[in-house]
Amino acid sequence: MGLYFRKLFIAFGAAAIAGCSLIDDDLSDCGVTFETGYELELVTNMSTEIQTQLSLESDIHVATALKAYLKNIFTDYAHDVDLSFYGVEADSTRLKHLSEVMDASQSKYTFYIPSRKYMHLAAANLRENGIVEMTDSTVCHHSTLKQMESDTVPTHRTGLFTARLPMDVVSNQDQSFFVRLYISNCATSLVIDTVDSHLRHFKAFAQGFATSFSICDSIYRFKSSPIMRADLLPVTEGGEICFTSVNFPSKDPDGSKVIIDTNDHFVSDNAEEAIWRWNVYTTLHDGTVVESVLSVKKPLRAGQLRIIKVKALDNGAVQPDMSQVGVSVKIDWNYAHEVDIEL
Hints:
The protein is mainly β. The chain is built from 2 helices and 23 strands. The longest helix has 11 residues, at 60-70.
């Protein structure tokens, strides 16, 4: 699988002023001057996935709408940045914090900070996300990107980037630090071919993803299994419709992770059981609701786009065009009548 890989360099100048006596032998509280470079490093398969899965002439309208929808998700642009410096003692409390709107490819900030050891955490593009917020950020190991708690959750609105770096800021020495920020969320799209089905009323939801992300430990947590309310893209031409959800990653046989190894791509083994899914609901002309559950065993990782294409059938079920996706169908869903369809 190909790789889309773009970088944004943000140079931050950081300085500290001395607040101590020149003859004081204890220089631990003295200010020092140092520079820190920040780079948003986007590792994603978005372009390749769209080119591969939406390559037919009939896909062009969906492909165009999907690219427009994801332009603020898989992006190399930082709207806002949140920077925190924590002590490394047992309580690991925050000692310095800066949260600014940047809206630029490069920017400089000035810090006044004593020389000591720090754990530095950084996050970008939080302010306009609307669904995810940073919580418990005054303590390093508690700092978390947390999705809103609800049975049904809207899709994330921005691509979220995070980083962590130990820093030993010492006096009387020229120093510079370099911080790479990696994307922490991902996306999945469901493309439904409605040609000849005479069906137009669809709803779709995705499920099976993490609900929070521990920034310092780079660990995803699965407190519950909320349903992601996917957006229906504005595709006005052609015979396909597209639902898209932006969310945290799914569970992973190798452990959910931020992708930082560019040689890893997004190749993964199947889990023993389905780890995430799409739930599709179709309303027939007589009011009958048909539920199709599309089960996926391959993990959805940070930075990844996964497109699943299905064909709508006259009976209201949807049939995937790939063997890796399982499907179960309930006809007249309100009465829980189950039917399996042949793939």
